[in-house]
Amino acid sequence: MMYYHLKMVIRQIEYESQVFRQNISERHTKTLENLIFEKQSLQPAILHKQQAHSQNINT
Questions:
Q1: Using CA atoms, how far apart are residues 38 and 17, in angstroms rounded to an integer?
Q2: What ranges make up the beta strands (E) of 1-59?
Q3: How far is the CA of 55 from the CAs of 8, 30, 47, 48, 51, in angstroms?
Q4: What does residue 36 show for φ and ψ, rounded to 5 degrees?
Q5: How many helices (H) and strands (E) would you count in the chain?
Q6: Tens digit of pLDDT for each residue in 20-32?
Q7: C-alpha span between 33 and 17 (Å, rounded)
Q8: Integer Cα distance of 36 and 40 in angstroms
Q9: Residue 59 Cα to chain centre, angstroms
Q10: Which of 37, 4, 28 is nearest to 12 (CA)?
Q11: In a 10 Å sphere around its CB, with 0-12 CB exposed, 13-18 middle and 19+ buried, how is residue 49 labelled?
Q12: Considering the entire predicted model, what is its pTM?
């Protein structure tokens, strides 16, 4: 009986650790996707500023 209980506890811990790892992986992926999206969103503004800055230097 004790062996069965321990086996169930171990399975529960393994399951919870698998879910935890999956959640961390999903969060990491979402963070990377957000950073890429932000970079792409900011790219036109950065390019515009760089062009304006280089025009100011040339004039």
A1: 31
A2: none
A3: 70, 38, 12, 11, 6
A4: -65, -45
A5: 1, 0
A6: 999 999 999 999 8
A7: 24
A8: 6
A9: 43
A10: 4
A11: exposed
A12: 0.54
Q: CA nearest 57: which of 46, 47, 49?
A: 49
What's the CA gap between 29 and 22, in Å, rounded? Answer: 10
Tokens of 20: 């935890």
The CA angle 56-46-32, to the nearest 5 degrees, is 165
Read off the amino acid at residue 53. Answer: H
Tell me what the mean pLDDT of segment 37-55 comes to.
84
Write the single-letter amino acid at 16.
E
Residue identified by tokens 């086996």 is 7
How far is Cα 7 from Cα 52, in angstroms, rounded to an integer?
Answer: 67
HEC letters along the chain? CHHHHHHHHHHHHHHHHHHHHHHHHHHHHHHHHHHHHHHHHHHHHHHHHHHHHHHHHHC
